[in-house]
Amino acid sequence: MSCFARAETARISLATSCRLFLAVIGAASLAACAQSPVGRQKADLAGTNRQAAVARPHRVAALHPRPISRVRSPEDGAKQSVSHGVASFYSDTETASGERFDKNELTAAHPTLPFGTKLRVTDVSSGRFVTVRVNDRGPYVRGRVVDISPSAAEALGMMDKGITNVRLDVVQ
């Protein structure tokens, strides 16, 4: 083989090997992208079965009801929030604040107000009201703004109805 032919062959093999090297690098890059956390998460989600989907914790925040309306007005230098919505009564064994539930106390469950907040719950249709203390979280039924203890429900006269339209005023 001539010197010229050998040089041409070496040049062709060098170009071929460079192309092969670039192809291997490109394939390795694509393989690395396929192993990224996002790729693994999508692969994990595609392979989940019904039992794994049920075992995941749910988001309680998405279940919280939203008040129909909320108005803020200053009174004696303090802000007082007002909301309207549906109230129900409940019974439980232990509250979210850690207190033991007592059906004879005037207490309530509210999704966002701090524990210890005093609320005036007024039945819109009758005008009767009761002042309760927030010591629990809830209600977890869409459309309801507060759950009150059975004694507070009795004071409002809603034991027979179960639910009623109320107005909430923050007292303290």
Account of the protein in words:
With 172 residues, the chain is of the alpha+beta class. It has 4 helices and 7 strands; from the N terminus they run αααββββββαβ. The chain has helices at 3-34, 37-46, 50-55, 150-156; strands at 69-75, 78-89, 107-109, 118-123, 129-136, 144-148, 163-170. It has a 6-stranded mixed β-barrel. A hairpin with a 5-residue loop joins β4 (118-123) and β5. It is rod-shaped, with a radius of gyration of 33 Å.
Which features would summarize this protein structure in a list?
single chain; 172 residues; alpha+beta; 6-stranded mixed β-barrel; 4 helices; 7 strands; 32% helix
Question: Gist?
Answer:
The chain has 172 residues and is an alpha+beta fold.
Write the layout of secondary structure elements.
Blueprint: H1 3-34, H2 37-46, H3 50-55, E1 69-75, E2 78-89, E3 107-109, E4 118-123, E5 129-136, E6 144-148, H4 150-156, E7 163-170
Parallel strand pairs: 2-6, 3-5
Antiparallel strand pairs: 1-2, 2-7, 3-6, 4-5, 4-7
Can you tell me the residue ranges where pLDDT is under 50 for at least 5 consecutive residues? 48-64, 68-79
Which structural class do you get from the secondary structure elements?
alpha+beta
Helical proportion, percent range: 25-40%
Rg, Å, rounded = 33 Å
Mean pLDDT: 76
Order of helices and strands: HHHEEEEEEHE
Counting H and I runs of at least 4 residues, what is the number of helices?
4
Distance between the termini: 102 Å
DSSP strand content: 25-35%
Number of strands: 7
The largest sheet, given as strand count, sense and whether it forms a barrel, is: 6 strands, mixed, barrel
The order of strands across the largest sheet is: 2-6-3-5-4-7
The rough form would be described as rod-shaped
